[in-house]
């Protein structure tokens, strides 16, 4: 199988890429080497497979699978669901992104407690995250489809407008906003290219590549994680997992990416 | 004629507001309230970081382009709050400055309290030509001292800029390193030396 090879590649890459945005980054030659390694395949596939199994397995106090979970296209419909999220759900009377919706299904269908499910949403070597795997599975079922997120419902429209405000909101000790780092074309932090998320092209390019397998961390990371780590770099306090503020921001990014072909789960340094 | 145009203009604005049911000011207030509810303190990054100071508020409200009189008033206040070193000595050791410019540590929830902060300068600026991994959010500072010289005025300007960039340009993308206590007086002196010392790789 491909697994051992991939894991070795990931470990190697992790070693040379262990430093993050804030530290000294490797040179361009190393980037090229890394890109070659990635051409071999994406370990995200392993997460997709585990997620599919989790989706179909009876679990939790109710001993139920997630196969009746409604992701917006009707109970059990996974194909194409992610390309239309976030969206308004009548049963919760809320706009939800995929991850907060998964938490809803795990509580209502399987009987898990929301606090337990979201306690450690981001996995590590000794603690694999079910949410990351489930997310990988669902997004993979929208690969090749065009992003088509609605802002027609008043609550969807409101989430978009609030999300936009959050994107431009400067604060914290360094006065940073998302827009400080992602508001202009062709900028970088150290050697890392910063997508301009205020343009359709930039938003499409960035949004359609997430969730992604992070080579430097050896884990699949979701959009919630991406926002969480950018808020950290922004020197903000910590956003709560799946909270309305993170969903609103995701709504702004996702709707800005409309028309782009969804291509995740991707792979990142 | 003019009056009619203004009325038409207002009508269009009101309509734009209707589509969302919210004016921009309303969505801003909702966003602020939502963030205060949906964020939590972690490590050194307390929830109070979501409270805007008057500079942040003006830049947020006016999309980083406040009216001239607002910008001038706030810039003057930021300038008056800059603490220049009491000993009048503004130049430290450029080698220490280079280390600080390299380090992006500090102020995140994963940084431990009490550990010294870095300057993040290479995240946004080119400085020494030997460092190829530099960001481009700010202008290149390569040859900064060679171009500007090392006069007392330039030293003071450079110290002030690093201490509080908003005293010079209210909605600058550069942090206010001295103003918020991210960098100490001594650290800023080292960075001024990195930019102005003729022996520094920035100028050498």
The assigned CATH architecture of the largest domain in chain B is Orthogonal Bundle
Largest sheet of chain A: 3 strands, mixed
Q: What's the domain count of chain A?
A: 1
**Shape summary of chain A:** globular
What fraction of residues of chain A sit in β-strands?
5-15%
Average pLDDT rating of chain B: 92
Distance between the termini of chain A: 23 Å
Strand order of the largest sheet of chain A: 6-5-8
CATH class of the largest domain in chain B: Mainly Alpha
What would you report as the Rg of chain B, rounded to the nearest angstrom? 21 Å
Q: Please count the beta strands of chain B (DSSP E, at least 2 residues each).
A: 1
Write up what this structure looks like.
The complex is a heterodimer of chains A (269) and B (204). Chain A has 269 residues and is mostly helical. Chain A has helices spanning 3-16, 28-38, 44-56, 98-108, 114-117, 130-140, 154-168, 178-182, 200-207, 223-233, 244-256; strands at 87-89, 94-96, 187-189, 192-194, 212-214, 219-221, 238-239, 266-268. Chain A is built from eleven helices and eight strands. With 204 residues, chain B is an all-alpha fold. Chain B has two domains: 3-80, no CATH class; 94-203, Cytochrome Bc1 Complex, Chain D, domain 2 (Orthogonal Bundle). Chain B has nine helices and one strand. At the A-B interface, helix 7, strand 3, strand 7 and helix 11 of A face helix 2, strand 1, helix 3 and helix 6 of B.
Which characteristics define this entry?
heterodimer, A: 269 residues, mainly alpha, Cytochrome Bc1 Complex, Chain D, domain 2, two-stranded antiparallel ribbon, disordered N terminus, B: 204 residues, 9 helices, globular
Please outline the helices and strands.
The complex is a heterodimer of chains A (269) and B (204).
Chain A: H1 3-16, H2 28-38, H3 44-56, E1 87-89, E2 94-96, H4 98-108, H5 114-117, H6 130-140, H7 154-168, H8 178-182, E3 187-189, E4 192-194, H9 200-207, E5 212-214, E6 219-221, H10 223-233, E7 238-239, H11 244-256, E8 266-268
Parallel strand pairs in A: 5-8
Antiparallel strand pairs in A: 1-2, 3-4, 5-6
Chain B: H1 2-20, H2 24-38, E1 39-40, H3 54-61, H4 68-80, H5 94-102, H6 121-124, H7 144-148, H8 152-163, H9 185-196
Helix pairs in contact in B: 5-9, 8-9
